[in-house]
Amino acid sequence: MTSSDPLAGANAGQAAFWTTGPGLKWAAHHARLDALFAPIMAGLLTRAAIAPGEHVLDIGCGAGDSTLAAAECAGPRGRATGLDISETLLAVARDRAAGRPGTAFVLADAQTHAFTPETHDLLLSRFGLMFFADPVAGFRNLARALKPGARVHFVTWARVEANPWNRDAKDAGVARLGPVPADDPRAPGQFAFAEIDYVTDILANAGFTGIAGEEAGSHLHVAGPAEEAADLATGIGPVSRILREKGGTEADRIAIAADLAGRFRAYEGPDGVRVPALLNYFSARRP
Ligand SMILES: C[S@@+](CC[C@H](N)C(=O)[O-])C[C@H]1O[C@@H](n2cnc3c(N)ncnc32)[C@H](O)[C@@H]1O
What we know:
Elements: H1 12-19, H2 23-28, H3 30-48, E1 55-59, H4 65-74, E2 79-84, H5 87-97, E3 103-107, E4 120-126, H6 135-144, E5 146-157, H7 164-177, H8 196-205, E6 209-222, H9 226-233, H10 237-246, H11 250-264, E7 268-269, E8 272-285
Parallel strand pairs: 1-2, 1-4, 2-3, 4-5
Antiparallel strand pairs: 5-8, 6-8, 7-8
The structure holds S-adenosylmethionine.
């Protein structure tokens, strides 16, 4: 199922980014990323408390890990629909869901997609809601897909300084190739929803009630040595951006990864690397 061409819509830049740009790496590394985010996903599922029979809408579902988990929680009478702007990532999700009942996937821009009104009990998202060109319009549109009283639960990154996975990776990248221009902190992207009050205002302006935002510590887990964590952290995220903007080579990435492995050594333990992370968990209701 597709809606109007997301590559030509309000979030065309994001669609290209996630379809033919870094989204290709997210697709290639999806199993490693799902393992990395497992502690954060567990926090999201605990808070969402999906009940058997519920219909869940998972926005920015990427390679489908959260959609599959939601379908599992909703059980045989329930259903989870993953929606994403990237056909590249949805292809992985569909592949993983093959033969597993209770899942569906939609290629669309969540900000503008014409949802069937009032069809879902829960809006869920793991890192998939920080990319709308117009966040209030996006959340207003998502509200249409929800039944009256439906719940909203999503997780975003808190401030970058408290997230060494990104902070240390960026520092290692800058040490090798020099600084890149600072972003508008609220521009669509990984840390756009780092400020809790900014996001709760968006939810209120989009018509939600019972809004709460909670900063919570967790960690990112790699079941291997610091070198393996550094390899993953330099394949996506800030290092990938620095390499792109500075014309860096694979030799640069390897040098940055070696530096980063040294920084991640502090987080090594008996079962691999556990890098501390700070998240924002949001909840709300559709009136
Ligand atoms: C950081 S990734 C997270 C993917 C997945 N939820 C996960 O945790 O692995 C962000 C996802 O949001 C999707 N996305 C970005 N803008 C979107 C939009 N306007 N509508 C739907 N999906 C969007 C991207 O394609 C990407 O899959």
